Amino acid sequence: MDRSKQLFIRHPDNPILTGEHWPYLVNTVFNAAAADLDGETLLLVRVEDRSGVSHLTVARSADGIHDWRIEQQPALAPSPDHPEEQWGVEDPRATWLEELGRFAVTYTAYSPPGPLVALATTADFRTWERIGPVLPPENKDAALLPQRFDGRWAMLHRPVTSMESGAHIWLSFSPDLRHWGDHRPLLLARTGPYWDAGKIGLSAQPLRTERGWLLLYHGVKHTCFGSIYRQGLALLDLQDPRTVLGRTHEWVFSPFESYERSGDVGNVVFACGWMLAGDEVRLYYAGADTCMAVATAPLDQVLAAVAP
Q: Alpha helix locations (H) across 178-298?
């Protein structure tokens, strides 16, 4: 692979977190939310135990790459008071809500009736207020935008009614973070042979830039050898997130390295968290549903790719 032609450049020390780093016995670690807290990078990592059930655990690093300090206990685990979490809590996205002084963490709550979007808030990733289910199954891949629009919070999510109609990214609004409505499709999966035909979903939480809300989304291409998960970009209007300003025609990040090709689910790069570090976009992603890795790109080049 000619790295000079790649938008996102993988860190040479990838993968940065694996199950072997964990202070207790696990199967895999992947799909982590990312946040900047107290001058450190915090990852809220999905951890799958050896029963197959997932919980969320915090890892912290001063430079966001090395010397991760991993909590001895889960930060958020399935609760008997929340039957929607019976089969696990998965795939968190964290958005800082300045108005509330708290992070809003959306995650997938999984149980026999199906996966749904649940919401919890926290100021420190130690104590939590569980709001609980906010959208019914089947729904995943949700994240909030960090501000209100005309008095309402906005959330991106991915409902699935039937694969015949495709799986698309939707936008919904709420006055109180609990009751959501005004549901509308925002970004549709393409059709035909494209890398994002049939099924797409939000990856990391939206990032505010001078040119608009920057979105990272995943597309799934089904092949005779299985599915391939890749990443693309979109841009929403700052004042009206219902307006899509741009979208990449091609993917911008795709499985290539051995830790992305081989694992519990091969041929997957999947991100639930990214952040701005100065003029650089730092992408925290999972490889093959097995480990965590990081890649970076200049912000101006990312914006040029989505809205040239």
A: 258-261
**Do residues 273 and 205 make contact, with C-beta atoms less than 8 angstroms apart?**
yes
Q: How far apart are CA 171 and CA 264, in angstroms?
A: 31
Residue-level pLDDT at 1: 57
Domain that holds residue 66: 8-306
pTM summary value: 0.97
pLDDT number for residue 299 = 98
Rounded to whole angstroms, the Cα distance separating 22 from 41 reads 17
In a domain, 3, yes or no: no
Q: List strands edge to edge, sheet with 139-144.
A: 139-144, 153-159, 169-174, 181-187
- The pLDDT score that the predictor gives to residue 182 is 98
User: Is residue 125 in some structural domain?
Assistant: yes
State the Cα–Cα distance between residues 220 and 168, nearest whole angstrom.
11
Residue 231 inside a domain? The answer is yes
Q: How confident is the model at residue 225 (pLDDT cuts 50, 70, 90)?
A: confident
CATH number at residue 208: 2.115.10.20
Q: How does DSSP classify residue 4?
A: G
The number of folded domains in the chain is 1
> Rounded to whole angstroms, how far apart are CA atoms 188 and 198?
9
Residue that the structure tokens 């080049």 belong to:
301
Residue spans of alpha helices (H) in 35-103? none
Spatial separation of the C-alpha atoms in residues 305 and 308, rounded to whole Å: 6
Of 234, 189, 230, 188, the closest CA to residue 213 belongs to: 234
Mean pLDDT across the stretch 197-212? 96
Structural domain includes residue 58: yes
